[in-house]
Amino acid sequence: MSTYLVGQKCGPGVLGALVLDVKTILFSLVVAELTASAVLCFLFFFWKDRDRAGHLSFGLWSIAFLLGAIGTLLISFRGVLPDDLTIIAANFLILFATGLRRSGVAAFFHLPLRLWIAAGLAGVWLLLCSVPDFAATMSSRVAYVQPVMILYIAWSAIICLRWNTENLVTPKVYAFSAALETSAHFSLLTALGFGAENGLFEAISGHVILIALLLILVAMVLSMFTALAMPIERSLLQFKSAAYRDCLTGLPNRRAVFERAATFTSVSGANNCLTVIRFDIDEFKRVNDKHGHATGDLVLQVFGRVCEETRPADTVAGRLGGDEFVLLSTRMEPNQARILAERIRAHFAAACSEETEGTVQVGLSAGVSSVPLDLGLDEALEIADRAMYEAKACGRGKTVVGSAEKARVFSGTEDAQFAFYNPHPA
Length: 426
What we know:
The structure is a single chain. The chain has 426 residues and is of the alpha+beta class. It is built from 14 helices and 6 strands. Strand 2 (316-321) and strand 3 form a beta hairpin. Helix 3 packs antiparallel against helix 4 and helix 6 (138-162) runs antiparallel to helix 7. The protein is elongated and about 95 Å long. It starts with 13 loop residues before the first helix and ends in a 5-residue tail after the last strand. The model is unreliable at 1-20 and 406-426 (pLDDT under 50).
């Protein structure tokens, strides 16, 4: 922020030439911070569809920008109001506000707030200002304030880059704005801390200050926008995720499965085929009728969990609807898919019995198909669907591999278009 102007002495005539520009920048900062605080405060109280982290971040950032605006405004009255207000109080508010900004970033990523750091370092400033030699020396004040500001801002940038596991865009922009602000404060530390002692540097220190102020203004405005945008982007991502996920089982829904399948391309290690396992819970209606829909939902949830725990990482599992599930892979041969289906079937039966204490015994029928990638999911599902019904016809609780290639050898009626391999003949 704007802690740097407090009591500095630039070269003769330099500050006078910059007074109007500096005050304009300070006023712009005050307006921007007050606007951001008001918008964030409004969102804090009236935006209901945000997560707890976003809610807390809005509150902390709103307070931080408000305190920063007050501190910046006090600095702009340097020479009009007493130094206790324009130096000591102003820098206390700005230090505490910058610490709160860091806490707001931490809250957004579900990290400890560590508000005591913001309060503690601001309190240290007050204690130091009670020492006459420190309060009377600008270079001493700058040597404390600027490093603390750099620490807070750089810390915020590191949090945004280190903990952005959702790969959001706005935290990266926030980190960029923090990098700009950090470089500006480092320039101010150099100009204000050493300019007065170095005659050569004193001649250009006023220009360095002006450029640093402009950088801080740009960085602050950018960070304000990203502070507003970060919770919004997360909410949009959560809405999108919910639209592509089955709320009962946690698996991708039909829409997500088809869109993911459409992105499959031939990649290194793939067999250039789309392999599909189509699962159907045997006599699921009887489970609902006999044990109730709550138990039926539990059975579906158990399958979703077993499928996620058992499937390889490079496969995609999803719920097509009802008790129908599917698993996709471009790296699996039909026989490997059959083995995986058998493993899932065995784990599912055991998990259901365990979850219901043996009161519900359910089976699983599976159909496997493998088609060239360019034929797409519809073709693969049709073959797997017929294979799955063949498994049910063979007595349920079985896995059948369907093959369109073999079928074409027997071409004739519609029922003869598919030949099936049943590893567990009835």
